[in-house]
Design brief:
With about 110 residues, this protein is mostly helical. The protein has 5 helices and no strands.
């Protein structure tokens, strides 16, 4: 389930479900963007016709995923659970650090715009 086989969390399944929904929505938007240029899809959809609505739905999935992530962090932080802290420590050091920073920066840039 995670980088540490001994780590567990009650909200991890919900977090994965939200992440999968976000990934699915991103893939669907990407495929629609590629297929809108090709026949017969170009006759059915005009470029940029529904992309604004798809973008808003994807943003809703991002916010849901962020809500689940913050919920997991607050549960661990407020309960002072030392056995669950390695989840964050492994993501703040090593190869996961740049990915964590990129996710934070992309989320903060979307909130400002």
């Amino acid at each position: 389930m995670s980088l540490d086989p001994h780590w567990y969390s009650t909200i991890f399944g919900v977090l994965m479900l939200g992440g999968q929904g976000l990934s699915t929505m991103a893939f669907a938007i990407l495929m629609l963007a590629l297929l809108v240029r090709v026949e017969p899809m170009s006759q059915r959809r005009r470029p940029r016709s529904n992309f604004h609505d798809h973008g808003k739905l994807m943003f809703a999935f991002v916010m849901l995923w962020a809500y689940f992530s913050v919920s997991q962090f607050l549960i661990i932080w407020s309960a002072n659970l030392p056995e669950e802290v390695p989840f964050y420590l492994e993501r703040l050091h090593g190869p996961w650090y740049p990915i964590s920073v990129a996710v934070l920066l992309s989320a903060s840039s979307r909130c400002r715009s």
